[in-house]
Amino acid sequence: MEFDFARLSRHPDVEAPNLHAVDAADRLILDEADAGRPASGAVAVIGDAYGALTLGAATRWGLPVRTHQDGLVGERALAANAADAGLSDAYASFELEAGLLADVQLVLLRLPRSLDALDEIAADLARWAAPEVVVVAGGMVKHMTPAMNDVLRRRFARLDVSHARQKARVLIARDVLPAEASAPPEWPASRVDPTTGLTVVAHGAAFAGATVDVGTRFLLPLLADAVPDARDIIDLGCGTGVIAASLARSRPQAHVRGTDQSAAAVASARLTAEANGVAVAVARDDGLGAVADASADLIVLNPPFHIGAAVHTGIALKLFADAARVLRPGGELWCVWNSHLQYRPQLERIVGPTRQIARNRTFTVTASARRR
To answer: PROSITE patterns in the record, alphabetically (predicted)?
Structure first.
C-alpha cells in the first residue's frame, strides 16, 4: 500500500503557499529504502517534518516505526496526520537516544542543514543501531553539500550516492566502522565564551552550537536596562540558553524561564544553566503555548526568520503574539532582529509602543511595552 501524501497537513505549523508538508526528498528516501528494508523489526525515522516518512514507511512496509523529531510542532503535526489516517498506533516517538535506535537495521533520515546535527546523529547511529544498519539519508539537492558525505564517512565504511530525481538526492550509508561503535561521545559540545564568561553547552542540532551568535552578542550588554525590577523573565526561543543564563546570573532574585520547541535546544539550555550554576526553568513548548496569560514582566526574543529552508516571517509574528498575551500590562518584549526585516510596525501593532534601543549595520534591538 502507498500512503496518500495529499492528505498531509503542516498544522499547527505556519502554512503558506510556498510551504509544503511533503516533498520529492521524502518520496525518494522511501523508494531508495525499499531494497534495504528488513523483513521484521522496527524502522527508525529521524528528522521527519510532518509525517511523510513515518506514515509512508508504516503504510508501505507494515513495520513498526520509531520516530525522532527535534521540533515539537512537527511532532504535533505528525500526531494529527496519523490520527486523520487511522495510523496513530503505527509509530512511537522517541528522544535521540538508545531506545530509538537499538537493534534497528534501517534508518530513514532527512538530512539536517547543520553538519554538527548530522555528526551527532551519525555518532548515535554508530553507537546504538545494529552493526548491519542501512541509513537512507536524503534532502533537496540545493540544501546538500559534499561535506555531508564526509561526515557520514567518518562513521561508515561505505557511502553510495543516488541519482538525483526531481531535484532530490539520497546518500546511503552502511557498514559501521567498528572503532566508531565504541568511541566515547563527542556530543554535547561545551565551550567557554571569552567575552561573557559563560559556558555554552550545545547538542549538534542547537542553533549556533557552543558559541554566542552575533545577534545575541549584540543584545546581551543592553539587557541591564530591560525592566530592572522584573520578577518573572522568559527567554523565548531560548536556543542553548545563553540569554537565560546571563539574565539568571545577573538577576538572581528573578524567576527566569526558557522555552524552545527544539528538543536539542531544550536539552542544551538545561546543560548551559547547570554548567553556569544558575537556576533556569526550561521547557519544550510551541512558543509560549503552555504559559499563562499576563504572567511575565520581561520577555527576551531573538526570533528566527527561516521555516526550514524557506525565509518566512510567520514564526516571528506568532512569537510576538505569544509575548503580547503573556506579558503583564506594562511589561516589555526586548527583541533583537535583522534590520532588513523591519519588524517595528508589527511589534507596534501586536505588542504595543515600541522604541529602538540600539542598531548596528546588521541588527536592531527594540523594546515593546505591553499596552495597559
So the answer is: N6_MTASE (PS00092)
| Range of weakest confidence among 1-15, 79-93, 194-208 | 1-15
Looking at residue 1, what is its pLDDT? Answer: 77
CA distance 217 to 88: 43
Model pLDDT, residue 313? 60
- Cβ-count burial 281-303 (b if 16+ within 10 Å, e if not): ebbbbbbbeebeeeebbbbbbbb
Taking 70 as the threshold, does the pLDDT of residue 305 lie above it?
A: no
Same domain flag for 132 and 252? no
Q: How far apart are alpha carbons 28 and 275 in whole angstroms?
A: 42
Q: 284 falls in which pLDDT band (50, 70, 90)?
A: very high
* Best CA proximity match to 352, nearest among 328, 302, 338: 328
Domain boundary among 131, 147, 181: 181
pTM of the model: 0.93
Supply the range of the domain harboring residue 289.
189-369
User: What is the average pLDDT score of the chain?
Assistant: 94
Split into its structural domains, the chain has a count of 2
pLDDT on residue 17? 75
Mean pLDDT over residues 324-348, rounded? Answer: 96
Q: For every residue of the chain, which 3-state class applies, written as one string?
A: CCCCHHHCCCCCCCCCCCCCCCCHHHHHHHHHHHHHCCCCCCEEEECCCCCHHHHHHHHHHCCCEEEECCEHHHHHHHHHHHHHHCCHHHEEECCCCHHHHCCCCEEEEECCCCHHHHHHHHHHHHHHCCCCCEEEEEEEHHHCCHHHHHHHHCCEEEEEECCCECCEEEEEEEEECHHHHCCCCCCCEEEECCCCCCEEEECCCCCCCCCCCHHHHHHHHHHHHCCCCCCEEEEECCCCCHHHHHHHHHCCCCEEEEEECEHHHHHHHHHHHHHCCCCCEEEECCCCCCCCCCCEEEEEECCCCEECCEECCHHHHHHHHHHHHHEEEEEEEEEEEEHHHCCHHHHHHHCCCEEEEEECCCEEEEEEECCC
Do 177 and 195 reside in the same domain of the chain? no
